[in-house]
């Protein structure tokens, strides 16, 4: 027998209630929110953290982008965002530390800043007493390589599902907003981003919850 299919939730208040229960369950809990590029996972993660206030902290997977210099050295800069352009082992190591806080130790996480297209080390502080860490990113449910260890560390995993046309429109608009031409934005969205999206979608079934919110909420 395989694993049971994910539960589907379409109401934001129900998701916020689940997050609050996780935060109140005792000890440190990890909530992972996965989804294809442009699916709304970052927005949802921020809504959860804003709702819970000091009880939650957001630690995005994007902080583990390899630097542009390293991607250039590897010949992967034009594919930035693909699964092999992240420090997967470093991300897994951080989640392992976060899942088992010790004493009064403050753990620091990197933060990706899109305006610079680079990550900054030690930008996010996670205090030992913090009850809930929310992490979000494309590849949280991938079951190969170092990524396979991520899902095991999550107390609950959500997958953001959205219509493909809406997701693509969002991605093109995002790329334009951060400086790409309209043609370049469309090429990036329908090329590298779409290949990444297919890989992410192939692992949707491994989530605990599939999230289907109205486009205005996601």
Give the helices and strands, then pairings.
Blueprint: E1 7-9, H1 12-23, E2 29-35, H2 41-52, E3 56-58, H3 68-74, H4 88-99, E4 107-113, E5 118-126, E6 132-137, H5 150-153, E7 156-160, H6 164-177, H7 182-201, E8 209-211
Parallel strand pairs: 1-8, 2-6, 2-7, 3-6, 7-8
Antiparallel strand pairs: 4-5
Kindly describe this structure:
This protein is an alpha/beta fold and 218 residues long. The chain has a single domain (13-211), classed as 3-Layer(aba) Sandwich (Rossmann fold). Helix content is 37%, strand content 20%. The protein contains 7 helices and 8 strands; from the N terminus they run E-H-E-H-E-H-H-E-E-E-H-E-H-H-E. The chain has helices at 12-23, 41-52, 68-74, 88-99, 150-153, 164-177, 182-201; strands at residues 7-9, 29-35, 56-58, 107-113, 118-126, 132-137, 156-160, 209-211. The strands form 2 sheets. A 6-stranded parallel sheet has the order 1-8-7-2-6-3, sandwiched between helices. Strand 4 (107-113) and strand 5 (118-126) form a beta hairpin. Helix 6 crosses helix 7. The longest helix has 20 residues, at 182-201.
Roughly how much helix do the residues carry, as a percent range?
25-40%
* Count of DSSP strands: 8
The side-by-side strand order for the widest beta sheet comes to: 1-8-7-2-6-3
Q: What's the main sheet like? A: 6 strands, parallel
CATH fold naming: Rossmann fold
Task: Give the C-level CATH assignment.
Answer: Alpha Beta
Shape-level CATH architecture: 3-Layer(aba) Sandwich
* Shape type: globular
Strand proportion, as a percent range, falls in 15-25%
């Amino acid at each position: 027998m395989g694993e049971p299919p994910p539960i589907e939730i379409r109401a934001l208040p129900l998701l916020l209630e689940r997050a609050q229960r996780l935060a109140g369950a005792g000890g440190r809990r990890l909530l992972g929110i996965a989804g294809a590029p442009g699916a709304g996972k970052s927005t949802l993660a921020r809504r959860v953290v804003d709702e819970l206030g000091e009880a939650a902290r957001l630690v995005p997977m994007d902080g583990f982008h390899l630097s542009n210099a390293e991607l250039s050295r590897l010949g992967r800069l034009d594919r930035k965002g693909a699964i092999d352009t992240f420090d997967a082992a470093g991300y897994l190591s951080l989640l392992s530390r976060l899942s088992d806080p010790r004493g009064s130790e403050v753990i620091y996480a990197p933060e990706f800043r899109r305006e610079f297209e680079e990550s900054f080390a030690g930008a996010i502080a996670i205090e030992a007493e913090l009850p809930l860490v929310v992490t979000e990113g494309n590849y949280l449910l991938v079951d190969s390589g170092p990524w396979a260890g991520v899902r095991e560390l999550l107390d609950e995993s959500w997958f953001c599902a959205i219509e493909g046309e809406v997701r693509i429109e969002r991605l093109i608009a995002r790329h334009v907003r951060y400086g790409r031409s309209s043609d370049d934005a469309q090429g990036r969205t329908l090329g590298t981003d779409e290949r990444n999206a297919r890989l992410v979608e192939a692992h949707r079934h491994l989530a605990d919850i599939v999230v289907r919110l109205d486009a205005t909420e996601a």
